[in-house]
């Protein structure tokens, strides 16, 4: 595989960054994951807009212009022959002597990108539906910034797997925030889609925005508000969204069967419609 690091396209086993990189020492880095379908970038502009916002919020300088970033994405997809999969981008504040204070302007940010071939559309998990466990949301309270501080998300995903489930949804004050690496939704008895409103409690999912647009076009009712654990367990349907899983049905929450215990019609329909419309808009 060819990867991109600090201005160069190199083979993955020849790529390196400093041991003093602030990304590994402080988690002082932001990232984006863009999916690739038919060799095209999906929701690319949304991901780059959010990347700029994450950088601004952390006062982190940008290592490349919008034009350069698009060119690197396209070139890596082409060089690695990615028809279906993802492209990962990470920017850290760079390498400097270890210090909690940010380094001066002479330190340049570290930019790295790599691709991963992956079957996204045909997903055994989406066919079966996910089993979810509920865990306390113990993350820092700026979940709207997409940083590489993913240890808690990784811990709870492992906790889910160890208990025979697929993923964890996080709970703050009795209400669901989001999944370990996805946004969370329920469908109520009367067919309303409910997902938490945007705030610093959740990542502002790019897929969330696109899927809610699809739902609006299908004339489905949408409520953006927090929902409780009790509402989730009693829901007619539930699902999650993310760039690489699209719309992913949920069939069980903390042992409670959701609906019929099989992927629900709203989630299945939204998955189809989102995939079709995002493919058509891919660049
Ligand atoms: N929430 C969290 C915590 C995530 O890590 C992610 C994606 O990685 C999402 C939500 C979904 O965001 P997107 O749809 O932009 O992939």
UniProtKB/TrEMBL annotation:
Lineage: Bacteria, Pseudomonadati, Pseudomonadota, Alphaproteobacteria, Rhodospirillales
Class of the enzyme per the UniProt entry, highest EC level: transferase
Biological process annotations from GO: amino acid biosynthetic process; branched-chain amino acid biosynthetic process
The species this protein was found in: Nisaea acidiphila
Catalyzed reactions per annotation: L-isoleucine + 2-oxoglutarate = (S)-3-methyl-2-oxopentanoate + L-glutamate; L-leucine + 2-oxoglutarate = 4-methyl-2-oxopentanoate + L-glutamate; L-valine + 2-oxoglutarate = 3-methyl-2-oxobutanoate + L-glutamate
Pathway involvement of the protein, from the record: Amino-acid biosynthesis; L-isoleucine biosynthesis; L-isoleucine from 2-oxobutanoate: step 4/4; Amino-acid biosynthesis; L-leucine biosynthesis; L-leucine from 3-methyl-2-oxobutanoate: step 4/4; Amino-acid biosynthesis; L-valine biosynthesis; L-valine from pyruvate: step 4/4
Enzyme Commission number(s) from the entry: 2.6.1.42
GO molecular function, one term: branched-chain-amino-acid transaminase activity
UniProt KW Disulfide bond keyword: no
Described function: Acts on leucine, isoleucine and valine.
NCBIfam families: PRK06680.1
UniProt KW Endoplasmic reticulum keyword: no
Keywords (A to Z) from UniProt: Amino-acid biosynthesis, Aminotransferase, Branched-chain amino acid biosynthesis, Pyridoxal phosphate, Transferase
A Pfam entry, by short name: Aminotran_4
Name of protein: Probable branched-chain-amino-acid aminotransferase
PANTHER family: AMINO-ACID AMINOTRANSFERASE, AMINODEOXYCHORISMATE LYASE
Cofactors required: pyridoxal 5'-phosphate
GO cellular component labels: cytosol
Protein family (similarity comment): Belongs to the class-IV pyridoxal-phosphate-dependent aminotransferase family.
């Amino acid at each position: 595989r060819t990867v991109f690091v600090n201005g160069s396209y190199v083979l993955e086993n020849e790529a390196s960054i400093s041991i003093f990189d602030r990304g590994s020492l402080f988690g002082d880095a932001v990232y984006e994951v863009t999916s690739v379908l038919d060799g095209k970038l999906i929701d690319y502009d949304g991901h780059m807009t959010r990347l700029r916002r994450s950088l601004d919020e952390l006062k982190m300088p940008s290592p490349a212009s919008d034009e350069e970033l698009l060119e690197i994405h396209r070139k890596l997809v082409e060089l690695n022959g990615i028809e279906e999969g993802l492209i990962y981008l990470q920017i850290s504040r760079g390498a400097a002597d270890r210090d909690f204070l940010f380094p001066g302007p002479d330190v340049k940010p570290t930019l790295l990108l790599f691709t991963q071939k992956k079957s996204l559309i045909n997903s055994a998990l989406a066919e079966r539906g996910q089993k979810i466990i509920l865990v306390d949301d113990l993350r820092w309270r700026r979940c709207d910034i997409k940083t590489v501080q993913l240890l808690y998300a990784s811990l709870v995903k492992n906790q889910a797997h160890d208990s025979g489930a697929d993923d964890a949804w996080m709970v703050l004050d009795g209400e669901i925030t989001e999944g370990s690496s996805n946004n969370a939704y329920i469908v109520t008895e009367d067919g309303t889609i409910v997902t938490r409103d945007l705030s610093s409690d959740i990542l502002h999912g790019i897929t969330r925005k696109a899927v809610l647009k699809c739902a609006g076009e299908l004339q489905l009712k949408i409520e953006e508000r927090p929902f409780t654990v009790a509402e989730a367990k009693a829901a007619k349907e539930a699902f999650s969204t993310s760039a690489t899983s699209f719309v992913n049905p949920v069939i069980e929450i903390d042992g409670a069967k959701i609906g019929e215990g099989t992927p629900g019609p709203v989630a299945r329909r939204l998955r189809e419609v989102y995939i079709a419309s995002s493919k058509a808009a891919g660049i």
